[in-house]
Amino acid sequence: MDSSQATTMYPWKEIIPRMEEIRAEATDQFIAAWKNAQSRRTHDFTWHETMGYVIVKRDDAARRIVLSPRGPELLKEMGLVFDPGSVSTHPQDPGAADWDIAAAGPAAEAAETRWRPAHARFALRCEPPYLRAFSLEHLALQTTQCLRERRRILKSRLDPDEMLLSISQFPLLGTGTYIDHQGAPNGPLLRSQLLPDICLNSQPPFTLEIGGIVDRRGVVPYTGVPVFRDTNTVWPFVDEDLPADPYKGGILTQSCESNRDSACAMGSSTVATATPSAAASPADLNANGLPSNAPWDALLNSQPPPPSRPLLLEPPSNKNCVLLDSPLFGIGSGGVLRVTLCAADLDEARSLHDQLAPISAIMAALTAATPIVKGHLVNRDCYWDVQCSTVDDRSAQERGIVPLTTAKGTLLKSRYGSIDMYLGPDETRADPAFRRVYNDCHFTYDKQSFWKMKEDHGIDSLLALHVSRLFVRDIHYASENMLSTGETSSAMSGQEHFKRFLGCSRQNICLYPPNKCTSSGWEVEFMSLEAQLTDAENAAFITFIVLLSRVIISYRLNLYLPISLMDQNMARSQKVNAAGEQLFFFRRDVFGGRDGKSNGSGRISKRANLTPSRNTRPTSAGAERGTRGMNCSGVYAKAEYVELSVDEILNGSEAFGVTGILNIIFTYLNTMRLEYDVEQALRRQLLLVKRRASGKLCTLATWMRNFVRTHPEYQNDSVVSQSINYDMLRAMNDIEEGRVAAPELLG
């Protein structure tokens, strides 16, 4: 793009006076998308994946591997020009292709890959050129090959001393020498004591989003990651890279010169909150903290609201933690693996959104790949909660540190996190599987946009509530087109304002409205997977999610859990070896509840409540449980939700009356009358998931942790040195390229 035609971008501080106007436009854009979807034909199911890679550079003589900030340079060499003012790229509808996608083969498809930059200069993202039609043959025989061919294309552009890895986070990011041409920290863009500005992509959307997070929060968002305590780890542990006490009275010492609490401080704005707060008008709320003239009694539990959340007078503890001080640690700095499902219609999208959410914690545990943060073994295997914390842009008022005066309300979660609520069915379509008690968490939402969608345009209450909760947050930047009026504004795609708000609230499951530019329908994005080392692993988990989505719709599975239990599951999934040692709340009977009757008492049966019988056996979760038949009785039979291991959830357990998600998928495949080679290829992919769930294969996080702890140079002090990191990443690259076998990881 010619620099003279470059789109002007405005930072968060400059768009504060226009924020309510932007919110109103975003609300109108969603309403328009919703209305357009009402009259459109039903879409065939399609899907696509998003992959991310990290570029590293090795120095064999020094036994050191650092990040390579050549991402923008590689994109330029491939002839790709990034438009900072454009809406995010999106694969086209398969009907728009002028060639047969399925017949073209992996090489042709990979050649058309949509490459794009990430926030970090050393990371790249990519998507297929077109939404993939649902084809079991393509899923079985071409997915892995497409990923491999795509990786081969990018590798061909690398220098001889560079490597391409699909890892969630570079192990040494933020400590010592970790990037080529590193330079000094405390630059004007990142304002970080750990990361120099060379780490950040210099394009305005990325610099403005990072700056907007810091400015809106009012302070640098420190994140503490608990250190894994080994035999020689200095304890108590103190992170020497940052001040020993970065907090002062609940506010970080390093300020960012922002005298505004939030862009939500518009005086004309009215809000409602599910948790009583100073920002809500009590006269407008019922006993549940929701609009009194909305039919919530038919939708939500009529339990009394929880006590008001106390102010967080004490800051989070930084004891025995490594400290991170930049949003770049959590956004766009590592590999990603996401699966986007384009549903037939809104009803199917709502079902996928709700039913996939309870499985997200299970998949996070199963794909855990980040046991090392800032050069230390940490006491967790997943990066999800670290990412959520580093991009937390809530102000002091929204976090409950100081009383509410100008903010819209107290926000209990970061802008990244698990979902706040289930969408349930449209009010005109009953679904007995959905019960109002499942939405048992409290959150703040924008009252003005809620009533506009519901009363003025007829959008059902739950969908309107889901969308209006986006508008209690700010966008971090805006393009010139977004702030313009008249013909320029009407010539836009019609969704840029709304998509900016979506980008400020990324959850484990995301719902996207139809995209009129690409002719796609309602979409659901599965976000909690961590990128895997090899293309075969990534393809296996893509296949699992796609097939699970078809099984959910075909068999009308009921995976509903109360949101509060799902949040507990997400917390458990972060722990060390969660796939093998943790228990997760899950529905005992995933086929029950569709007849309008509860398939249990609604009680939660914890494993401690189950009295072991003589027939006990150790399980992958490391506990001994009593053996009960499928027609069991007692406490367990009455429980609607039980604590299960990942093995029991996916592979089933006759002893505990659990069918197993993978067994249901295998049953589905048996009904499809597949060609032998297609069926066997699908089963091989699912076998990797099955064996990892059973504990026969380990997660990448476990493999990395074991590699470090058995390395001859490791001092049992939790420290991952440059030489250990060099040997580990070289070994990982050799495994990915097939030069070294890793039977404990891949079988």
Compute the number of strand runs.
24
Count of helical segments? 25
What is the general shape?
globular
**CA distance, first residue to last residue:** 47 Å
Biggest beta sheet summary: 9 strands, antiparallel
What is the C-alpha radius of gyration, as a whole number of Å?
25 Å
Give structural notes.
The longest helix is centred in the middle third of the chain and has 21 residues. The N terminus is likely disordered. The strands form 8 sheets. Strands 2, 3, 4, 5, 6, 7, 13, 18 and 19 form a 9-stranded antiparallel β-sheet that branches. Strands 20-24-21 form a 3-stranded mixed β-sheet. A two-stranded antiparallel sheet has the order 1-17. β9 and β10 form a beta hairpin. It is of the alpha+beta class and 747 residues long. It has 25 helices and 24 strands.
Question: Would you summarize the structure shown here?
Answer:
Strands 2, 3, 4, 5, 6, 7, 13, 18 and 19 form a 9-stranded antiparallel beta sheet that branches. A 3-stranded mixed beta sheet has the order 20-24-21. Strands 1-17 form a two-stranded antiparallel ribbon.
What is the secondary structure topology, with strand pairs?
Layout: E1 9-11, H1 12-15, H2 19-38, E2 46-59, E3 64-67, H3 71-77, H4 101-104, H5 106-111, E4 114-117, E5 123-127, E6 132-133, H6 136-141, H7 143-155, E7 162-165, H8 204-217, E8 223-226, E9 247-248, E10 251-252, E11 272-273, E12 321-324, E13 337-342, H9 346-366, E14 372-373, E15 376-377, H10 384-390, E16 444-445, H11 447-456, H12 461-468, E17 477-479, H13 480-483, H14 487-490, H15 496-503, E18 509-512, E19 523-526, H16 535-555, H17 563-573, H18 578-581, E20 584-587, E21 603-605, E22 616-618, E23 624-626, H19 635-638, E24 639-644, H20 646-651, H21 661-670, H22 676-694, H23 700-709, H24 722-736, H25 743-746
Parallel strand pairs: 21-24
Antiparallel strand pairs: 1-17, 2-3, 2-5, 2-6, 2-7, 2-13, 4-5, 8-12, 9-10, 11-16, 13-19, 14-15, 18-19, 20-24, 22-23
